[in-house]
Amino acid sequence: MRAQILKRVAPLSETAESLELVDWPVPEPTAGEVLVRVSVCGVCHTELDEIEGRTPPSRLPMILGHQAVGTVAGVGAGINPQWLGSRVGVAWIHSACGTCRHCLADQENLCAEFRATGRDHPGGYAEYLTAPANFVHAIPEPLSDLAAAPLLCAGAIGYRSLRLAGLTDGAPLGLTGFGASAHLVLLLARHLYPESPVTVFARNPEERTFALELGAAWAGDSGDSPPQPCAAMIDTTPVWTPVLQALRNLAPGGRLVINAIRKEDVDKAAWLDLSYPDQLWLEKEIKSVANVTRRDVREFLALAAEIPLRPEVEEYPLEQANQALYDLKHRRVRGAKVLRIAG
Fold first, then answer.
1. Model pTM?
2. In the prediction, which pLDDT does 34 show?
């Protein structure tokens, strides 16, 4: 099978390709697993973190990709053959132990044995992948493969972030950064909280224009002041400065949810400028988002099909995975990026 392989961790550049397109053996599903023939796979900022070493794979070489959609082409021992031909998605959560206190409390995202697709187990930048049958997700019929791929991570983690924000209808919501996840959060918030004005903070003027096209009440630069303080804010940027700016724009008692697995160190010194009276006083909160659960993915897929919610998607062939990642790193983003693996 064709697969894009990460062989070493290093900074992503336009000239040196981080991933190598190779012929790779088709994996065999073990007991409890299914084999998925991948049609498309979303491109996520987390892949940049893996390539550049902020969230490195547990072993190399590794096939990245954790927003894979395809059909079940094989089953391992103990799996009903009726799975064959089913359209499924594979998300960031590849597996968890199932027995710890977190798993038993529906918090498998916090499990010490959490394993990630494309980081700890080969992912979807390939024609085939394997996954535990109880960790794959049925794709609702109204959703195309292309539309479903970004929903598996950008959408599901955005859904979790919005739930953790504790927003009530009518209260202002702020979004810092406006990539794949944030544009889905905006669409979702307009459906779930129709009376809540959504403000967007983004450095790129094109992203601000895009946000207004999708229904944002206001869009400004990261350092601008919104028309009113936000009851909740969700940060989807890879850096630190927008976090401090978001805290300044929070209303008293407001909550900032940081939707990122890792932050880059380019502006880490920004934290030295944290002003307690301006940014944390009056019971403001900061909450991080850790991974996703199967419940997040499945609830969001069902909700997206019902709304209906359709992401903006830019498609690349598998051969251009490095270009898609480079474009993502340099904020050439309008919605989500998806690799076409098979027709």
1. 0.92
2. 98
Cβ(172)–Cβ(196) below 8 Å: yes
Q: Of 120, 117, 188, which is closest to residue 156 (Cα–Cα)?
A: 188
| pLDDT value of position 94 | 98
Q: Let me know: does 156 contact 150? Beta carbons within 8 Å.
A: no
CA–CA distance, 57 with 244 (Å, rounded to integer): 30
Task: Flag whether 43 is in a domain.
Answer: yes
Beta strands at 33-43 and 68-75: parallel, antiparallel or unpaired: antiparallel
Helix (H, G, I), strand (E, B) or coil at 73: strand
Looking at the 3D structure of the chain, how many domains does it have? 2
pLDDT at 272: 65
Residues 181 and 88 in one domain: no
Q: What is the pLDDT of residue 242?
A: 87
Helices marked H in the chain — which ranges?
45-51, 101-104, 145-150, 156-165, 180-192, 205-213, 241-248, 294-306, 321-329
Q: Which residue has the tokens 């702020």?
A: 174
CA distance 179 to 221: 14
- The gap between the terminal CA atoms of the chain, to the nearest Å, is 14
Q: pLDDT below 50 — which residues of the chain?
A: none
Both 131 and 168 in one domain: the answer is: no
Tell me, yes or no, whether 107 lies in a domain: yes
**Cis? peptide before 61, omega within 30° of 0:** yes
Closest C-alpha to 162, from 299, 67, 50: 299
Beta strands in the chain (DSSP E): 2-6, 19-23, 33-43, 62-63, 68-75, 87-90, 93-95, 115-116, 128-132, 136-138, 173-176, 198-201, 218-220, 230-235, 250-258, 285-288, 313-317, 336-340
Strand, coil or helix: 156: helix
The model's pLDDT over 116-159, given as tens digits with 9 standing for 90+, comes to 999 999 999 999 999 999 999 999 999 999 999 999 999 999 99
